[in-house]
Amino acid sequence: MKAKTTHILFDCDNTLVLSEALAFEACAELSNEILSSQNVADRYTGEQLLVDFVGKNFRGMLLDLQDKYNFTIPSEQLEKYVAMEEDKVIEKLKEKLVPCVGANEVLEKLAKTGNYQMAVVSSSAHRRVVASLEKANQDTYFPPDRVFSAATSLPKPTSKPDPAIYLFACEKLGAPPATCVAVEDSKSGATSAVRAGIPIIAYVGSYETPEKRDEMAKTLKDVGAAAIMYDWAEFENCLEPAGCNVSDMS
Asked: What keywords are assigned to this protein (predicted)?
């Protein structure tokens, strides 16, 4: 029998807020500059980056690009690129970001019941996540000490699908993984939670077409999602398959 769920851990990008397309649009130019400096002929659009690297932070993306194209960026220069990308993305998010449809209503209801503790667990930098939450009017539900970033909160930066950030968040929250449920939209994020031993509700509503939503639903189910959520209005119905008591939402 599953332990009583006490904490709900939310991914941020394209789970709570529609940020991925904006973020990859902002970093495509910088990525192409880096590839050019390494004499790599290929170039990416924001859309292509989103397809290839969804769920990963910029550091993780640069590591993958180095592997793909067989070049090496010195660690000091890599950190400069990461900081540059973060600034570009935050500027774009502050201008255009909106919450995922229905997410704010669910957060408000959860906060009113007081039956679950809530936190954000993201691959993105802490400063970027906080900026997103503020723009989407979600920061009242997630103070900065309830935001955990694989890019900046850990002693050694990493990215999902590494489970380190979920395990770190559980430790800081005093919540064993079995008492948590995660809400994720990407394969890397869902894999991270599964590897940490946390049941998942998979949200696919941020994908643009019905075909892509169905494709991702299958992918995330195969990863180990307990429930698939096409719309935030379905959240309460997804709690029970994930091991929560649905009466706790009422």
From this structure: Hydrolase
**Residue 212 exposure: Cα atoms within 13 Å on the Cβ side:** 10
pLDDT of 86 > 70? The answer is yes
Where does a domain end: 48, 64, 96? 96
Enter the pTM of the model: 0.85
CA angle 30, 55, 40 (to 5 degrees): 35
Q: Where are the alpha helices (DSSP H) in 18-102?
A: 20-37, 46-53, 58-69, 75-96
Res. 245: pLDDT tops 90 = no
Instruction: Report whether the peptide linkage leading into residue 161 is cis, meaning its omega lies within 30 degrees of zero.
Output: yes
Q: Are residues 233 and 147 in the same domain?
A: yes
Which of 72, 96, 120 finishes a domain? 96
* Cis upstream peptide for 144 (omega within 30°): no
- CA 225/CA 8 separation, integer angstroms: 14
Same domain, 54 and 142: no
Shared-domain flag, residues 206 and 152: yes
- In a domain, residue 1? The reply is no
Q: Which domain holds residue 39?
A: 20-96
Instruction: Report residue 135's pLDDT band, with 50, 70 and 90 as the boundaries.
Output: very high
Residue 2 falls inside a structural domain? no
Q: Other CB atoms closer than 10 Å to residue 107's CB: what's the count?
A: 23
Measured distance CA(201)–CA(229) in Å, rounded = 7
The two counts, helices (H) then strands (E), for the chain are 10, 6
Residues 233 and 109 in one domain: yes
What's the token pair of residue 126? 């802490």
